[in-house]
Design the sequence.
C-alpha cells in the first residue's frame, strides 16, 4: 500500500498557494487588531462598523445592512454595537420608515473616534498590503478577492463611496 504525498484533489502547487493564503488569513487580522487596539482601543471589526457608518448617508444604517457589509451575524454585530454604545460612539433607534428595523447611528463622538483611528489604520494597511505589491498586483488582488468572496457568498460586499476616499475629517 502506497501513501499519497498530496491530499486528494489538491496539487503541490495549490497546497503551497493555500498555505500562503491561510497564513495571510491568520496574520493580517491579528496585525490589524493589534494596531487598532493599541492606538485607538478598537477592534478591527469595531473600526469597520464605525467607518461604514461614517461613510453612510446621515451616518446611519439598518443593522441588517451593516451586518451584511461586515459579513457578520446580527448577534455579533449587536454585541459590537452594545460596546460602541457604551462608549458613546453609536446609538440605536427604531427605523421611522419601517418600525420592524433598527438603525445604528454614528454619534459626533463616534465620528471623532473614526476620524482619529483611520489614518493609522490606513497607514498600516498601506505598509502591510499595498507597499508589498506592484500596481498591477494590487488590481489583481482586488479581482481575486472579489472572486473568492463571491464564491463564498453572493451577497454584495461593502464598497466605500467613491466620494469619500480620504479619511473623514472633523
Sequence:
Amino acid at each position: 500500500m502506497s501513501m499519497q504525498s498530496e491530499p486528494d484533489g489538491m496539487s503541490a502547487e495549490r497546497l503551497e498557494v493555500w498555505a500562503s493564503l491561510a497564513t495571510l488569513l491568520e496574520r493580517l487580522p491579528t496585525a490589524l487588531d493589534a494596531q487598532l487596539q493599541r492606538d485607538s482601543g478598537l477592534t478591527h471589526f469595531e473600526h469597520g462598523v464605525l467607518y461604514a457608518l461614517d461613510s453612510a448617508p446621515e451616518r446611519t444604517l439598518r443593522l441588517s445592512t451593516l451586518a451584511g457589509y461586515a459579513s457578520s451575524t446580527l448577534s455579533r454585530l449587536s454585541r459590537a454595537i452594545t460596546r460602541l454604545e457604551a462608549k458613546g460612539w453609536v446609538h440605536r433607534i427604531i427605523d421611522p420608515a419601517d418600525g420592524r428595523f433598527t438603525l445604528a447611528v454614528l454619534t459626533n463622538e463616534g465620528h471623532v473616534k473614526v476620524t482619529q483611528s483611520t489614518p493609522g489604520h490606513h497607514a498600516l494597511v498601506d505598509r502591510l498590503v499595498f507597499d508589498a505589491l506592484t500596481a498591477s498586483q494590487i488590481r489583481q488582488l482586488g479581482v481575486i478577492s472579489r472572486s473568492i468572496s463571491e464564491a463564498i457568498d453572493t451577497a454584495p460586499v461593502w464598497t466605500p463611496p467613491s466620494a469619500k476616499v480620504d479619511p473623514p475629517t472633523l
